[in-house]
């Protein structure tokens, strides 16, 4: 699947930058074009892979390149005011060559959480290609203002995109990690999971051909219908045979040679990885039962993939989700591992979102109380007891 990626804010820009690095390392060809948008000049300068001409600094008249200070209302206002500057960068994207737009943003800050819904609304008004969001939720220990930002942005963003894929920092932060190290680890996890998913179907002449092709239409149809999506992932290292195997040997059933994989072991590995991916850590933890649609992508060396295992995994997903819209296929790679990537779309039973909303409401009430109290305290501080002093004006 070929994407035009727009990284909005600090987190969004870094993640898109990491996607470009992944593209170069794997040759997956996911990112057709990448744009980074920010109100902070320093964040744009810190990017390594997004071309400088595609880095857009907005809000210079308001914040002078210093960011919006976690004020997502200001972030939204600046995105509205400077939407022409963002569109100027998007105009350079060969839209006829992309399958969809993907807007990536951290939902806890100011620029990304405020501006990403604005840009999503703008793109949907102009283009016919699907517009997806990838939103990153802040950890519960990052503070009330970031939780409040995330809850408000989530509520707005999900209504402006064709589907909102979510990654929850809370489920992925490791104890003892530095802040910078923690975010680097999280960004790698994001790119690994979504990289396998979006890479499916992007093969060039001479590449291994999938036995059961997953292409961009399968991903689009799974995401169609809106709502919230989560991704599961599991992998296992394998040995890559020098002979390759490939599609022809699989059709011929050439399992008798010393170098070929035992069919039963291959099938069992695939079904085991499918279970681990679905029942392990999802990008947004939730109950998979009730997911409206699902897509299974098995990636790995051709000799370690087979149709029987993928079909069993797909049927198991149907049973677990209760959905009849479960698609599946393989994505041959040369990497020495077999990986299962599962997209669950239209999930509903998501305790983390309810918790986020409740904490945000409490934070909002607390902020209002503090502001009211602050005004009273200021009055007590500056007014003299006898009201004898006259202010200048």
From TrEMBL:
<feature type="binding site">
    <location>
        <begin position="10"/>
        <end position="14"/>
    </location>
    <ligand>
        <name>GTP</name>
    </ligand>
</feature>
<dbReference type="GO" id="GO:0005525">
    <property type="term" value="F:GTP binding"/>
</dbReference>
<dbReference type="InterPro" id="IPR037103">
    <property type="entry name" value="Tubulin/FtsZ-like_C"/>
</dbReference>
<feature type="compositionally biased region" description="Acidic residues">
    <location>
        <begin position="376"/>
        <end position="393"/>
    </location>
</feature>
<feature type="binding site">
    <location>
        <position position="142"/>
    </location>
    <ligand>
        <name>GTP</name>
    </ligand>
</feature>
<feature type="domain" description="Tubulin/FtsZ GTPase">
    <location>
        <begin position="2"/>
        <end position="195"/>
    </location>
</feature>
<keyword id="KW-0132">Cell division</keyword>
<feature type="binding site">
    <location>
        <position position="169"/>
    </location>
    <ligand>
        <name>GTP</name>
    </ligand>
</feature>
<feature type="binding site">
    <location>
        <position position="187"/>
    </location>
    <ligand>
        <name>GTP</name>
    </ligand>
</feature>
<dbReference type="GO" id="GO:0003924">
    <property type="term" value="F:GTPase activity"/>
</dbReference>
<dbReference type="GO" id="GO:0005737">
    <property type="term" value="C:cytoplasm"/>
</dbReference>
<dbReference type="InterPro" id="IPR045061">
    <property type="entry name" value="FtsZ/CetZ"/>
</dbReference>
<keyword id="KW-0547">Nucleotide-binding</keyword>
<dbReference type="GO" id="GO:0008360">
    <property type="term" value="P:regulation of cell shape"/>
</dbReference>
<dbReference type="InterPro" id="IPR048737">
    <property type="entry name" value="CetZ_C"/>
</dbReference>
<dbReference type="GO" id="GO:0007017">
    <property type="term" value="P:microtubule-based process"/>
</dbReference>
<dbReference type="GO" id="GO:0032153">
    <property type="term" value="C:cell division site"/>
</dbReference>
<comment type="function">
    <text>Involved in cell shape control.</text>
</comment>
<feature type="region of interest" description="Disordered">
    <location>
        <begin position="370"/>
        <end position="393"/>
    </location>
</feature>
<keyword id="KW-0131">Cell cycle</keyword>
<dbReference type="InterPro" id="IPR032907">
    <property type="entry name" value="CetZ"/>
</dbReference>
<dbReference type="GO" id="GO:0051301">
    <property type="term" value="P:cell division"/>
</dbReference>
<dbReference type="InterPro" id="IPR003008">
    <property type="entry name" value="Tubulin_FtsZ_GTPase"/>
</dbReference>
<comment type="similarity">
    <text>Belongs to the CetZ family.</text>
</comment>
<protein>
    <recommendedName>
        <fullName>Tubulin-like protein CetZ</fullName>
    </recommendedName>
</protein>
<dbReference type="Pfam" id="PF21011">
    <property type="entry name" value="CetZ_C"/>
</dbReference>
<dbReference type="InterPro" id="IPR017975">
    <property type="entry name" value="Tubulin_CS"/>
</dbReference>
<keyword id="KW-0133">Cell shape</keyword>
<keyword id="KW-0963">Cytoplasm</keyword>
<dbReference type="GO" id="GO:0005874">
    <property type="term" value="C:microtubule"/>
</dbReference>
<dbReference type="InterPro" id="IPR036525">
    <property type="entry name" value="Tubulin/FtsZ_GTPase_sf"/>
</dbReference>
<dbReference type="Pfam" id="PF00091">
    <property type="entry name" value="Tubulin"/>
</dbReference>
<feature type="binding site">
    <location>
        <begin position="110"/>
        <end position="112"/>
    </location>
    <ligand>
        <name>GTP</name>
    </ligand>
</feature>
<keyword id="KW-0342">GTP-binding</keyword>
């Amino acid at each position: 699947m070929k994407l035009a990626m727009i990284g909005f804010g600090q987190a969004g820009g870094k993640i898109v930058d990491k996607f470009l690095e992944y593209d170069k390392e794997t040759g997956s060809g996911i990112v057709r074009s990448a744009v980074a948008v920010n109100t902070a000049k320093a964040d744009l300068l810190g990017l390594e892979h997004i071309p400088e001409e595609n880095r857009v600094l907005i809000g210079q008249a308001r914040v002078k390149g210093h960011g919006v200070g976690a004020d997502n209302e200001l972030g939204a206002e600046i995105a509205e005011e400077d939407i022409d500057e963002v569109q100027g960068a998007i105009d350079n994207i060969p839209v006829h060559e992309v399958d969809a737009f993907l807007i990536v943003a951290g939902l806890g800050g100011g620029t990304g959480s405020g501006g990403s819904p604005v840009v999503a609304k703008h793109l949907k008004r102009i283009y016919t290609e699907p517009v997806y969001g990838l939103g990153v939720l802040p950890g519960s220990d990052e503070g009330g203002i970031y939780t409040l930002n995330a809850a408000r942005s989530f509520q707005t963003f999900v209504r402006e995109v064709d589907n909102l894929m979510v990654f929850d920092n809370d489920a992925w932060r490791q104890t003892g990690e530095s802040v910078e190290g923690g975010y680097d680890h999280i960004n790698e996890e994001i790119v690994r999971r979504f990289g396998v998913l979006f890479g499916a179907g992007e093969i060039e002449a001479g590449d291994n051909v999938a036995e059961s092709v997953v292409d961009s239409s399968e991903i689009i149809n799974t995401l169609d219908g809106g709502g919230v999506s989560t991704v599961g992932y599991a992998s296992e290292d394998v040995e890559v045979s020098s002979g390759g195997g490939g599609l022809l040997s699989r059709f011929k059933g050439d399992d008798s040679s010393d170098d070929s994989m035992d069919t039963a072991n291959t099938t069992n590995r695939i079904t085991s990885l499918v279970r681990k991916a679905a029942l392990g850590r999802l990008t947004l933890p939730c109950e998979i039962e009730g997911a409206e649609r699902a897509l299974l992508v098995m990636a790995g060396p051709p000799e370690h993939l087979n149709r029987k295992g993928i079909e069993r995994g797909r049927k198991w997903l149907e049973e677990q989700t209760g959905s009849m819209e479960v698609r599946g296929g393989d994505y041959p790679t040369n990497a020495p591992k077999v990986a299962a990537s599962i997209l669950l779309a239209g999930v509903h039973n998501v305790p983390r979102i309810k918790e986020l909303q409740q904490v945000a409401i409490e934070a909002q009430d607390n902020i209002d109380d503090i502001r009211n109290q602050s005004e009273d305290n200021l009055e007590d501080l500056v007014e003299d007891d006898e009201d004898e002093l006259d202010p200048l004006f």
